[in-house]
Structure formats: structure tokens, C-alpha cells
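User: I'm designing a mutation panel for TIGR02678 family protein and want to avoid disrupting the core. Could you give me a predicted structure to guide residue selection? Please restate the sequence first so the numbering is unambiguous.

Assistant: Good idea. Sequence first, for numbering, then the predicted C-alpha cells:
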Amino acid sequence: MARGGTTSYALRRMRANRRADAEQWNMRRRECAHALLNRHWIAKEEDPDLFYAIRDQYTELRDWFSEFTGFSLILTRTMAKLDKTPVGAAPWMGFQEFRETRDYALFTYALWFLESKTELDQFVLTDIVEQVSEQLVASGLALDWENYQHRLSMVRALKKLRQLGVLRHIDGEETDWAHDSQHRNVLYECSPNARYVLRHFPKELRAYEHIDDFNEQTIYPDTVDGELRKRRHRIYRRLLLEPAVPDREWSSEELYYVQTQRRTLIDQMQFMFGMEGSRYREGLYFFHPELSGEGSLFPTPAGVSDLALLLAGELRRQQGNHDWYVTEHGTVELTRSDLESLLYRLKERYQDYWSKGHRDMKLPELAEELASHMAEWKLGQWVNVEQVGERFEISAVVSRWIAEYSWDEGEDGA
């Protein structure tokens, strides 16, 4: 009996250890998947532990992303990168540091300059300016480097390349060059990651006829299987890269897939990312059950996210007292006056807990900032309603929340 009991205990312990090892492996894979999805890349010299974890699970990660999203996983001796593209570009997907379209153009031209460089090649900022200027002139374009704003655009582009690790800074500062381009310069070194910034296109660029064609990640055969694969990729890409996708934004074929493959969608997102999916009347939504160090989650740390949650609660409290128009999709349409009126109520009640900036804002400014923030998270948008005019359409998902500030016990109003 004693010997048999010892054997049984040893087997249970071995099984428990295997389950623990498997769970640890799953957690590590999800950590890798989140990092690949939310970072530009993972450099070995900056995060060696994560880089080697991705290398250890490379095959499984590569196969999953290829099967469900069409994204390619690139692994080199120095970095790992998920080559990803949204189904449709949105303003919030850009570089927050950039202020002009000219910044993006110079960012791209600087990458063109780096294509001729090899790892550890050194050069100065004026070399980039000179060659980019020649290329612009050859294309029938030109920049005025005497113009301070044009130099600032180049500064923002180069600083972004430095932040990404594409340019290695040796000496000098870009802002000094912007103030005195005749006597100041910056010395750089080329990183091996420079050629991996721009994504790889499946076709020659001249073969694309429409701007939307650039969003395709893969060439699909003109067959039933090819169409199904394309549909699956588009759906997973949107669910992973957009804050929320209501049913009304899917095509009829995509909506059929979302509805009939709901269980598979939920299982796969949970398997690879640990995300939880829930089906509501207005759509299938996914949530992170815990705070994640990768990516941005709503509500954000910014105070304007608090305003959005407070607005959700006020809408629920006041809906029976107003004749706001509720659409068939569950969205609520508000005039600017309605939105400002709701914010006035919230300001009267909660402004002591707001930042000084929000307390001092006039209601139209506050409404505009809140509307912009909600639009970034696809929680609302300005629409033109026929015969009525402009309305702020608030997503039905907002109705799932209600929020108030909580007071510590003993405070007035507790």
C-alpha cells in the first residue's frame, strides 16, 4: 500500500508539473504575441529574453499569424518583427509626433537614403539632406531648407528613426541643426534594422492601381478557398488592430462568418492573446481581462477617458428624460448642444476631480476633445443626418458602462 501510494503521488506530481509547464509556456507565447502585435519590432540587444522566447516559439507564432491574419513573422539574428497591415488606415494609427504630411514624406525619403547604407556605416545629417534634395528635384519636387518649418519636419522624421532604432546617434543634436543649419551637424550610424521598417509588398508597387490595394497583405487565388482565406484574414486583422468592430461595419459575407464562426473566433483569440470575447446585440467584442503592458487599452490613463465613462453613466441616467434619437443599431445621436449640456451637468458635479486643463476649458472645447477621443476608440463619430444636420453618434457599446467617482468613507457626498 505504501509503495502504491508513493507511486500515485509521484504521478500526480508529474502531471501537475506538466500542467504548470504548459501554462507557463502558454503565458510566454501570449506575451510574445502581444509584443509582436503592438511593437514595431523586438530587438535582441534591447530585450534579449523576449527575443529568444519568440525564437523558441517561432514556428507556432509564425503559423498562427499566417493562418488567421496573413501577417508574416520575420526573424533575423538581431530582431523579430510581425509585418502587419490594417484593413483600413485610421488617423490614430499614425506617428503622434508628426504634425505635417511632409514629416511622413521625409521619413520615407530618409529610409530611401538608408537603403544604400550597410550596418555601421557612418554619415552626417547634411548627407541625408543633400541626397534627399537631389531625389526630390529629380521627381519634380523641392523643399526649401531655408524654411525653419521644413527643417523641423526633417528633425521630427530623423528623431522618429532614432526612436525606432533605425538610426544610431553618435554626436550632435537635430534641434541645433534646425536652428543653425549652416554650422551645426549630426553624426549617425546605420542600424541593421533599417531595411525592415517598411513592410514587404506581395507585388511590385507599380502594379497597384488604387490606394486601398496597398492594404492587402497577401495575394489570394481567385478560388472559393482563396476568398474564404481572404475573408478570415480581414476579420482577424480588424479584430486585432481596431478597438471595436460592430456588426454594421462588416460586409454581409464577413458578418455571416463572424456569426457562424463565433466560437472559433473567441477560442483562437483566447488561445493566442488571452482575450475574452462576448457577443452583444450590436456586435462581437473582445476585452483584455487584465491590464497589459503592451498596446493601448481603454480607458486610457488620460483624464478624457474618465469623461467618456462619466458621459456613459449620464446618458443612462438621463435617457428617459430626453428625446434623443436612438437608431436601429442602438446608437444615440446627440446635437452639439446636447453634448455640451451633458458635459455641463458632469462639470457641475465632478469638476473638483478633473485636471485644471479640463476645469478651465469652455464647453465647446471640452466637447470637441471628448468627441475626438471617443472617435479614436470608435466609441462615437460626427455624422451628417439627412434633413437634420450634424450629430454626434455614440456607439451602442458605451451603454455597457456606467461610471461615477467614488468618495472615501467620511467625505461629503459619500
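For picking mutation sites, this is relevant: The mean pLDDT is 87. The domain at 91-196 is CATH 1.10.10 (Arc Repressor Mutant, subunit A).
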